[in-house]
Amino acid sequence: MMNTATALEWLVALMLLVGSFFTLVGAIGLVRLPDFFMRLHAPTKATTLGVGGMLLASIAYSVNHGVSLHELLITLFLFVTAPVSASLLAKAALRLRLKSRAPLPEDPASGH
Amino acid sequence: MLNLAINIAFCAIGLAMLLCLVRLVRGPDAADRILALDTLYINAIALLIVLGIRMASAVYFEAALLIALMGFVATVALARYLERGNIME
Amino acid sequence: MDTAPQAPQKNNAMTLPIIILLPLLAGTLLAPLAARFGRNSAAWTVAAITAASLGLVLSEASGVIAGQALITSWEWLPAIGLNLSFRLDGLGLMFALLILGIGLLIILYARYYLSPEDSVGKFYALLMLFMAAMLGIVLSENLLLLVIFWELTSISSFLLIGYWSHSAEARRGARMALAVTGGGGLAMFAGFLLIGSIAGSFELSAVLAARDTIHDHPLYVLALGLVLLGVFTKSAQFPFHFWLPEAMAAPTPVSAYLHSATMVKAGVFLLARMYPVLGGSIEFEVVVTSVGLITMVFAAYTAVFKHDLKGLLAYSTISHLGLITFLLGLDSPLSAVAAVFHIINHATFKASLFMAAGIIDHECGTRDMRRLAGLWKYMPHTATLAMVAAAAMAGVPLFNGFLSKEMFFAEALELHDLGLLGQIAPVAVTLGGVFSVAYSLRFIHDVFFNGEPRGLDRKPHEPPRYMKVPVEILVVICVAVGMLPGLTVAPLLAVAARDVFGAELPAYDIAIWHGLTMPLLMSVIAIVGGSVMYWLLQHQYRLHMSTPARWTAPRLFHRGYDGAVRLAGQFTGLLINGSLQRYLALLVATVALLGLSAFLQHGYSAGDLAPTAPEPLAVVVWLVALAAAFATVALHRRRFAAVVLVGVVGLAACLTFAYFSAPDLALTQLSVEVVTTALMLVALSLLPQEGPAKSLPTHQTRDALLAIGAGAGVAGLTWAVLTRPHESISWYFLGESIPGGGGSNVVNVILVDFRGFDTFGEIIVLGIAAVGVLLLMDGLRLPPAAGAGRGNSLLLSVAARALLPFALLVSVFIFLRGHNLPGGGFIAGLVTAVALVIQCMADGMDATRRRIGIGGAGLIGAGILIAGLTGAASWLFGAPFLTSAHGYPELPLIGKLPLASAVAFDLGVYLTVVGATLVILTRIGGVRSTTAAGGQV
Amino acid sequence: MIRRWLPYPLLSAALFAGWLMLTGDLSAGHLLLAAVLGAAIPRISAPFLEHLPRVRSPSAALRLLLRVTWDIVIANVAVSRLVLGPTGRLAPVFLHVPLALSNPQSTALFASIITMTPGTVSAVIDTENRELLVHALDCRDPDALIAEIKERYEKPLLEIFGC
Amino acid sequence: MEFLFASALGVVTACGVYLLLRGRTFSVVLGLSLLSYAVNLFIFSMGRVTAGAPPVVAEGVAAYTDPLPQALVLTAIVIGFGMTAFFLGLAVRAHGESGSDHVDGSEPAGPPEDPR
Amino acid sequence: MNHLAVLPVAIPALAGALLLICGGSRPLLERVLGIATTVLGAAAAAALAADSLSGAYRVYALGDWMAPFGIVLVADRLSALLVLLTSVIALAALAYAANGWDRRGRHFHALFQFQLMGINGAFLTGDLFNLFVFFEVLLIASYCLLLHGLGQQRLKAAVHYVAVNLTGSGVFLIAVSLLYGVTGTLNMAHLAERIAQTPEADIALVRAACLMLLGVFAVKAALFPLYFWLPATYASASPPVAALFAIMTKVGVYSILRVSTLMFGGDSGAAASLTSPWLLPLALLTLALGVIGALGAKRLGELVAHLTVASVGTLLATLAAGGSAGLAGALYYLVHSTLIIAALFLLSDLIARQRGSAADSLVAAGPPRQPVLLGIAFLLAAATVAGAPPSAGFLGKVMILQGIADHPAAAWIWGTVLASSLAALVACSRAGSVLLWKFTAEPAREITAVRGSEWLPLCSLMAASLLLVGFAGPLHRHAEATAAQLLAPSQYVQAVVGNSTERAPQPLGRELPR
Ligand code: NA
Ligand code: NA
């Protein structure tokens, strides 16, 4: 049977792999997806489960070295800020009327 | 085990960064470049966290925290600029 | 050179310096003051000063004539051999008397000559300055001191020639005289430096004593040539003569004084002065005599064809200076006597002639001999005086010019050692005599006879009584000396000539009649030939109709002068073409070459350490950096993209720092990176969005080569260092960080403690940069960009406000832990500033400004002040600036509290950074502000 | 009295907790410092803060948090398949989501949740027309998606904040 | 590692120098930015590059990387930031006054010189 | 504890900060504060200079950290002299600015103080990286001061000036850090010791670093081909600023002098005789090009700027030729040229202001209101700057020419110096005759007379120049003593770091990445 330390190490490894996977997928999406509005969805994965996985790994790892929860702060920051970035980029793209597979709405970005 | 995972993570993040770079260079629009940079910041956070795990050191944490904060500012500034031609009024 | 002159008498009497100081200080200062009370008072004042100097000279004269040279000396700059040393010997005495005596007459003359519009005070002040300079030259015992006075004559003559500065001729003449004589003076200066270094002293006595050493020295010829350049330019010897006629644009008293009696004589004075040192060699003799001879003949010939009275006199002066030069070149005692004698004679008759010319000009309004004629009828008195003086100039017996000229003829027959020159000389001097008779005759006949004046705008008459007095005095001297040389000048001549020759003179005799000798024959030939020549010219050649090819030297000079100025301007313009690209390329190239040169000499080699294997992650970062850098270059015209790409390079740098054990750097690099990006965008919104399209690839290759060179250089240096083992003083910081600095983050302890002084300077740089931005944006208001979007984002607004408290929390965290872990005041300040900047982006600047409330520049000042006062506070404890204190005071409940004064210092850093960042971002960002608020941030 | 010293109690609490999280140190000194900061920072940043909507139902808030977290995980997996699969078959669309929320903070929260759950991105909050413009990566039935979004996230938010 | 480091520095320097020599103020800013990265990394590397040895004194750790170059880089970064900000302000103002963003204050006249 | 050495830095720094705080709102207070602190700084400088007469090195360990670990200020005869000179120039410039120039833009007085701080710091510091920091302080302050009053001309000049110096700063950093990378230290005295012990394999690296360093200093000093930024910059700066800038090139010269005597001096070591082969020809070329530029100048300001370049050429040529006597002459010449160039910049403003729109362009304009006074001032200044006797310029040149007489290239130096003297004389006479003699019949216009308070700074500088003549003897002896001190670098090293071996660099341990 695995002891706690080993289990924790497995957990860390698992979380790292999960994080890596979504980070990579986010980047692949960034390259593969055909138009800007669709590409806008890519970083969300990196932000949420990508970094989230890493942070969980870090928290799990720190259990052995005196618990630290400051990683949660990073998550908080990311969750507050990422939607803002995405929205601003979307607004900009709408104003510039970038090429889009989805039909663009009539009156772009006039709202507040 | 853990080392393997860490190395895989490094490779994945590295690859992700290169992909971001491809988008960054290729564009085609400024918005794409900002998006790529934003993603690059996120990747950098991930990278620093993994580095912290590997070095068993907490000194990388602040860097990650700052990227989260500062990367946001950069992205906002860029996007604002793109949208309005200036970033403050 | 068998017997030396009597040993000079040394004392420290102030007489000699006072002789110079009187005109130099009293004269220049009092003249303008006295001029306020009218021209008479000015003239009386300077005349009194001159008379006082003259009196002082005369008071010493008896001793000097008895053979006692007077030398006084004070130390000034002994290390370079410059002393305030003065000498009054025979030569000096003679010249001092000339300068002061004729000076007095000129003062009187000028009183009447100057018109009411002319500034009398300025004139007399300059005249006094010039007089002092001349006295300085002839009374200097120290060669460097002599140079000083020498150049002072150049400058004061520049001012005197340019006295009528409204006239273009005067300005040009003045500049030309200064350039030629000033240049010659510099050459002479160099020559003196050589002589001084050979002789080991600049004191004339020592230099005189070192004659043989100087002659044997390999640099003798060079020194001689340089000194002669000074002599020839000052005395207007061919080919440097051209400035003198051009200087005739000066008021006539100036011409009479400077260009006949004194300044031009400074050259021959120097020749005479240096003759005992430099003379006696074949080089000296050949060069000086031939230059003198050429000048004498050529200038006399030219004088004949001058229509301008002063032009004629000017060339005549050149010719007579040539004569004197010729005499001084000869290595015989009698030539020295003749030279000195002619110096005196020429000064008298030429000064009087100039004054006469000035009277004529004054009364007739012209100096053109084609218009002047028959003035005998209108001003017989002046005419008589002029005729006597002209006769002296022509060398007519019974007048002083005859005596010296005959001696000159006699000397010209003695040039047996000089080969061809010796055979030409007698013919040449006779020819010169012919010409000089011709122009003298022309001066008299053309002006006073020869019909009636043509086209004068007024009826000529005699000048005021006292204007003629100086002329009369001089003419009396001409006659007195001419008839009774033994009773008048003989003693003075004897001591002066002895000083020139440098040894006791053999017995000689000055008399009107020596019997029927060869020189007398030459005189007769000259007088007869000159008369015939003038008659022929007047009647056959119609002299008045001639427009002799204006001697081209002045033209050439002016063309050369203007050309040089233009060329200098064009050359400078080509070199310094206002192109930053060139300047930077030169800078890069120079530095690269400098760096390279070290390796060319010593070879490049990598160190001995084995390089470590690359890691995959590092390869990725490397690829990212390279790709982004190249892409920046490729896309730099698309500026927005370039900003983003530069940011990526920065990110790569940040990761590199993080990876290689520099978390502080990573943090800072990152924060700065982001702020810089924002800043670039703010700026970009005010600049063209795209660089102009590529056109001609003019510099691309050059720049690419430079870039590759610089890159290779940096890479090479890095590689060389990274492969070498490392030793540094940092062991001390690692060891002392906790015990001495009270912090475990060594980088931070270095920043705020070990090298806190650097940081102090660094925040000042940042603060001033922000103030600079503030100033740059002052008054710059641009309209909002066309088609710019408006309105704010609700999401951003909400997020910004939510983030602010947490950003502040993070600031505090980073600030406080900086001493022990990565962080510190700088990053904390950036975080705070950035959090505030986000507010600006979300809600607009004005709203944010209102909410912040504190002025930006004030914040910067407060930050610097806090940091500085923290540093200065250590003075109170008797410790040096910026000495830190730290301790762990025990507090109830809380336990040990780590406290370090460095925290206060860091607080200063923090405030400065917040203020500076805010100012920078909001100021540039506010340029396109719709609500143009000019208030401070 | 408490209002005067702690105008934003929730924020102060968050800052207090945040400091302890940052330092990872529960010593007396840091507790004191955290308290000081929790009290001071809101006062310093008061000019920038506006009154936050009162949380009426903490349990609903907790439920929403769990739901969003779960949705993020699920949706991430789903979207990953979309990204890695053939992209040509994706059917992106802009959705106009009518807003029932009126308070700016809760609206912002709603928009953020939409963005953070993969597959949808809030583009524009149009407060005048009271609607949210959302881009969906792959959506065959827009109306159903709008309804689902409103049901899953807006309704709990209305319950939590009441506006 | 050392090779990667050195070569990257070289490339960034070269790119920076090339941009520095362009004719527009903004390109100069870009070039200076790249140059300052290179310079900062260069200073940093003068303490040699070591992973996993941050100069934060801790018990039981014997090997630290050289902290001094890091402190120097920090100073250089801050100064560089200030200078960049100032130069940008200058570029903006110069363009605002003269209407040209050419480094020489006016559009090159006459035959189309290289306006880069 | 005697804090004299730090005062010339600390006083202006604190004053500058204070001035920033009260900046803008109370102009009179700013002016008074600015002048008062400058006077205070000058007093400190004078005390320091008096102190330096003993010939001792005053070493001030900042933060009480001993050299080479901490930063030290080292006041020897040279530093003290230059700090004093800076104070004199600063007082004159500030007094001039107080007539109204200081209100043509904000924060003039604060910037002025920081400028002084940077200059004094550069003269005093004994640490090479700290020298960089002070260079940056003085540069950023000079950028702002250059722009004082703004205007298109200044902006253009500033773009060039800033870009060149930013690039130079990059090179400075590379050079300093490279030296650190090889020798492991930053203190100049310690560097001198370390450079002398450089192992064979590292010599090229050290030399490359030193040469690049000299290149950077050459930019600041304005040596060919790196001086092209200077004429436009100096000519477009506002007059009091240009006057203050007269000391700025001297900072470059000082730095070259300091490092070349201290760190690259002597015959042994990696950096032996580093400067001589290339510095001399470049310096002579600089001198020649400077006077050629002056000859062809189209404005008086430009002319003075080119003469600044020429003075640097003279100085550096002398330094390159080496030798104690030449060095002493150069020091005297340095003081003289700084004073007179500052005076000329002030004077050119006075002249320009009486010439209406023609300003200081070398073309005819309407007659000035005070031709005689301006003429006398110009005559004296021009004669001095051109080195006409008996000015300080002349004495300086005599000292220099005598001092380098034994150098193999003495003929070149003599020829260039003398020919350039003539060219300068011609250039000045041309300028003077056009500006003060050649008038157009321009209709009468409002010209304000120069006020006494504007004459005062100019006259003070000229009087200082005259004092240089009057006290040439003692001053030259001081210059000789200063030169002797400079040429005895071992004493400097001894005073700063002692000869203790326990301060030597050591390896820090190198752990490979796991
Ligand atoms: Na620092
Ligand atoms: Na989403």
What's this, in brief?
The complex is a heterohexamer of chains A (112), B (89), C (937), D (163), E (116) and F (514). Chain D is mainly alpha-helical.
Task: Please write out the topology.
The complex is a heterohexamer of chains A (112), B (89), C (937), D (163), E (116) and F (514).
Chain D: H1 2-5, H2 9-23, H3 28-44, H4 58-84, E1 93-98, H5 104-116, E2 120-126, E3 131-136, H6 142-161
Chain E: H1 2-20, H2 25-45, H3 67-98
Helix pairs in contact in E: 1-2, 2-3
Chain F: H1 7-21, H2 27-52, E1 58-61, E2 72-75, H3 77-97, H4 108-124, H5 128-147, H6 152-183, H7 188-196, H8 203-221, H9 230-236, H10 239-245, H11 248-262, H12 276-296, H13 300-321, H14 324-353, H15 371-386, H16 392-403, H17 410-437, H18 452-470, H19 472-486, H20 489-497
Antiparallel strand pairs in F: 1-2
Helix pairs in contact in F: 1-2, 1-4, 2-3, 2-4, 3-4, 3-10, 3-14, 3-18, 4-5, 5-6, 6-8, 6-9, 7-20, 8-11, 9-13, 10-14, 11-13, 12-13, 12-17, 13-14, 13-17, 14-15, 14-16, 14-18, 14-19, 15-17
Bound molecules: sodium ion (2 copies).
Mean pLDDT across the residues of chain B is 85
- What shape does the CA trace of chain C take? elongated
Main pleated-sheet profile of chain B: none
Helical residues, percent of chain B? over 70%
Which structural class best describes the helix and strand composition of chain C?
mainly alpha
Number of strands of chain C: 7
Briefly note the structural class of the backbone of chain B.
mainly alpha
Q: Return the domain count of chain B.
A: 1
Bound compounds: sodium ion
Measured by residues with Cβ under 8 Å of the partner chain's Cβ, the largest interface is:
C-F, 134 and 135 residues
Total of DSSP H or I helical runs spanning 4+ residues of chain C: 36
Helix content of chain C: over 70%
Strand content of chain C: under 5%
How would the global form of chain B be characterised?
flat
Poorly predicted runs of 5 or more residues of chain C:
1-5, 931-937
Report strand % of chain B.
Answer: under 5%
- Give the termini separation of chain C: 88 Å
Your description of this structure?
Chain A has four helices and no strands. In chain A, 72% of the residues lie in helices and 0% in strands. Chain A is mostly helical. In chain A, α1 packs antiparallel against α3 (42-62) and α3 (42-62) runs antiparallel to α4 (70-96). Chain A has one domain. The longest helix of chain A is centred in the N-terminal third of the chain and has 29 residues, at 4-32. In chain C, the strands form three sheets. In chain C, strands 1-2-3 form a three-stranded mixed beta sheet. In chain C, strands 4-7 form a two-stranded antiparallel ribbon. Chain C has 36 helices and seven strands. Chain C is an all-alpha fold and 937 residues long. Chain D is mainly alpha-helical and 163 residues long. In chain D, 59% of the residues lie in helices and 12% in strands. Chain D is built from six helices and three strands; from the N terminus they run ααααβαββα. Chain D has a three-stranded antiparallel beta sheet, with helices on one face. Chain F is mainly α and 514 residues long. Chain F has one domain. In chain F, 70% of the residues lie in helices and 2% in strands. Chain F has 20 helices and two strands. Chain F has helices at residues 7-21, 27-52, 77-97, 108-124, 128-147, 152-183, 188-196, 203-221, 230-236, 239-245, 248-262, 276-296, 300-321, 324-353, 371-386, 392-403, 410-437, 452-470, 472-486, 489-497, and strands at 58-61, 72-75. A two-stranded antiparallel ribbon of chain F has the order 1-2. The longest helix of chain F is centred in the N-terminal third of the chain and has 32 residues, at 152-183. Chain F is globular and about 80 Å long. Chains C and F meet through β2, α5, α6, α23 and α24 of C and α1, α4, α5, α6 and α8 of F. Bound molecules: sodium ion (2 copies). The site of one sodium ion has 7 residues of chain D, from α5 and β2.
